[in-house]
Design goal:
Blueprint: H1 8-20, H2 32-71, H3 76-85, H4 92-101, H5 103-112
């Protein structure tokens, strides 16, 4: 049986993986096996941290809304409870932006809704 030279296909795959990890230090950007391990680990970390980022941002939004609500004499829990009672589904990202950028508008919302 004749010898099969794999040609450019394997080289193309290896070059693609080495290009992916080109910013790594030492052997992680030079040697294929360690580069492949680094690629797998980085993709796993990216997948894990996408969910973590969503959780962290939600916590930040809730903290900002709570601070603005407490400045107007209402707890975050009471504020959200009141919004649900009025069948206003809260968009926490937008509420947090209003709380940070325009505190007067936020206090107006609280007074208009007769929470305070």
């Amino acid at each position: 049986m004749t010898r099969v030279k794999r040609g450019y296909i394997a080289r193309k795959r290896r070059k693609k993986i080495l290009a992916f990890v080109s910013g790594s230090r030492g052997a992680h950007s030079k040697l294929f096996r360690t580069a492949n391990q680094r690629k797998d680990r980085s993709l796993a970390s990216a997948h894990r941290d996408r969910g973590k980022r969503k959780r962290d941002l939600r916590r930040l939004w809730i903290t900002r809304i709570n601070a603005a609500a407490r400045a107007n004499g209402v707890s975050y829990n009471r504020f959200i409870q009141y919004l649900y009672k009025r069948q206003l589904l809260p968009n926490r990202k937008t509420l947090a932006q209003i709380a940070v950028l325009d505190s007067n508008c936020f206090s107006t919302i609280l007074k208009k809704e007769l929470i305070v």
